[in-house]
Amino acid sequence: MDASNLKRFALFKDVEESALNKIAPYTMLVEFPEGKTIIQEGGFSNDFYAIDEGTARVERSGEEIATLGPGDVFGEQGLLEKQERSASVVATSTLRALKIEHWEIPRMRRAMPEVVEQLQRTVEERSS
Questions:
Q1: Are 91 and 33 in contact (CB under 8 A)?
Q2: 3-127 architecture in CATH?
Q3: Mean pLDDT for the stretch of residues 60-74
Q4: Where does the pLDDT of residue 51 fall: very low under 50, low under 70, confident under 90, or very high at 90 and above?
Q5: Contacts of 87 (CB under 8 A, 6+ apart)
């Protein structure tokens, strides 16, 4: 993905251009059809997503606990903190998202620890 496209995502809007150039090679755009379970509660924390287009619902024990849309992120807490998934995320429309796969995080930490720390701080601020 091109670094300039990352600025579309709220998570990256305050990240410097030089850092975005480092992050971009670790990202990809993915698409899910309506009804697709993207993340399964209790599953392994494999990937991190930032929604570009579309909507999703967050479920815990079968109960809807949140709705997500463009600019929202999910999967970040389990991925950055190495926890099991605390909820499921299901696409409620066709959903396009930026994806960072779990094996990229250690590589990113080695190559650019300051960028991963900045992302972690941003995630923590958004979670509070």
A1: yes
A2: Sandwich (2.60)
A3: 92
A4: very high
A5: 39, 41, 58, 59, 60, 65
